[in-house]
Amino acid sequence: MAQLVYFSSRSGNTAKFVARLGLDALRIPISATEPLPLPDQPYVLITPSYSDGEGRGAVHPQIVRFLNDPARRALIRGVIAGGNRNFGQFYALAGRRIADKLNVPLLYKFELAGNEEDIARVTHGLNRFWRETCLMTA
Amino acid sequence: MKDNVNTTRAVPAAVNWNRLQDDKDLEIWNRLTANFWLPEKVPLSNDIQSWSQLKPAEQTLTIRVFTGLTLLDTIQNTIGAPALLPDAITPHEEAVLTNIAFMEAVHARSYSSVFSTLCQTSEVDEAFRWSSENEQLQAKSRLIVDEYDAASHPLKKKIASVFLESFLFYSGFYLPMHWSSRARLTNTADLIRLIIRDEAIHGYYIGYKFQRALERASESERAELKDFAFSLLFDLYDIETKYTETLYDPVNLTEDVKTFLHYNANKALQNLGYEALFPPEACKVSPAILAALSPNSDENHDFFSGSGSSYVIGKAVATEDEDWDF
After folding, report:
1. In sequence order, what E strands does chain B have?
2. Where does Fe cation 2 bind (chain B) (predicted)?
């Protein structure tokens, strides 16, 4: 069984989304001085998005710190991104940035802390995704 | 002389941005200041031809909707954001709130740029008169302004503020998004999207401060505030549905606008940390409106919504800090 890794700021939107999925998840800490979690199996990253009006700085520095470590980066298989459509073309941009950079699929986008439908789709989608991923890498 | 000391306003401490009590203050300050804009940035005159192609009733509707939005921005600029200042927990929060107050003035001013570019003075004067007399517009403003009263509970002011920022604007924002989805008034829509982006940050930040304060409240106080929030939302929703019918019935858009209201009411509640009120099936905003809100953001279809696509299992490439600084 694979894992989730996520970051959530003190607003807690992404943390709420992850809690409602009810799956094991490692949290990347808010503070730059705290130790980073070390996943030991393939994982999907769940990230909020932070870009300004020009699309800069979409990926939170703590996630950059996490993904810059080759051992932690090697196990990423997909990304799910939170955001707000009100940010226009930069909605959930962090998801696309990470997916493009690491050549993994952007699996899903949700707004704020997600709604019931998002939870159902991601639960179902992750199940299918891990089944297919296991078949392909077996 | 000595007796006066207690009645005199205390000299505040100088704000030190290198000593933060809450990192969110700096994060939001940076975001808001990086996003600063003025209406002169948007080439509104490119919409003159498009404007002339709208039917007279469509023009009147658009001007009225924009005067309604102007009123809400005016309230936030002169009453709403300043009302939150005395309740700020950190000096940096006060600085952020003054930025919010000023941007609301920019928003209110922007609608007048649209008017002076596209409309006749007499039509605009008529619409401002309409806004000062429209029953629903006045009723929702009254409900909000009453909560901004200095004697009001600090957290009730925040609830009212988030409902204005994240809910009440949307009966108006719908229309330029609708026009934009039909390739009408696309420059005006660009300007409105700048406002929508700012309001999203305002609602998020004030909602965040609300949730931080709620953590320190007693169980019974929390229950009372939640009751208050839902009851205020019901009252506002009641007014909004009537406002929506008055404006949008003649153009047959009422049901579509109501769906948009449900969707945004749920987002406003999420900003306050509360669960959704409207079920997903009542919030199915038309894809054209969603695409107008966030153009080009769906070009990479996401996998969990698609059907039967197979996944690309990528290999992770080497990264450096600079690589993420797009």
Report:
1. none
2. 104, 165, 199, 202
Residues in chain B: 326
pLDDT in tens, A33-44: 999 999 999 999
Q: What is the pLDDT of residues B56-94, one digit of tens each?
A: 999 999 999 999 999 999 999 999 999 999 999 999 999
Q: DSSP string spanning B307-324?
A: SSPPPP---PPP--GGGG
Region of residue A28 (left: phi > 0; alpha: psi -120 to 50; beta: else): beta
Q: What are phi and psi of B172, to 5 degrees?
A: -85, -45
C-alpha distances (whole Å) from B285 to each of A6, A134, B298, B319 are 28, 36, 15, 38
pTM: 0.93
Distance, CA of B318 to CA of B311 (rounded, Å): 21
CA distance A28 to A67: 11
Smallest CA-to-CA distance from B190 within B32, B46, B299, B70 is with: B46
Q: Do A102 and B267 touch (CB under 8 A)?
A: no
Distance of alpha carbon A68 from alpha carbon A32, whole angstroms: 14
What is the C-alpha separation between B186 and B177, in angstroms, rounded? 9
Domains of chain A (ranges plus CATH)?
Answer: 3-137 (3.40.50.360)
* Average pLDDT across chain B, whole number: 93
**CATH code assigned to B22-294:** 1.10.620.20
B266 vs A16: CA distance, rounded Å? 15
* Contact between A52 and B200 (Cβ < 8 Å): no
Sheet strand arrangement including A76-83: A25-28, A3-7, A43-47, A76-83, A106-111
If you compute the radius of gyration of chain A from its CA atoms, what whole number of angstroms results? Answer: 14
Structure tokens given for B322? 């600079």
Q: A86 and B200: CB-CB below 8 Å?
A: yes
Helix (H, G, I), strand (E, B) or coil at B90: coil
ipTM of the predicted assembly exceeds 0.85: yes
Rounded to a whole number of angstroms, the distance from the CA of B6 to the nearest CA of chain A is 37
Positions of B annotated as catalytic residues are 111
Hey, how many other C-beta atoms are within 10 angstroms of the C-beta on B203?
Answer: 26
Domain extent listing, chain B: 22-294
The DSSP H or E segment spanning A109 is strand A106-111
For residue B287, give both structure tokens.
Answer: 């894809």
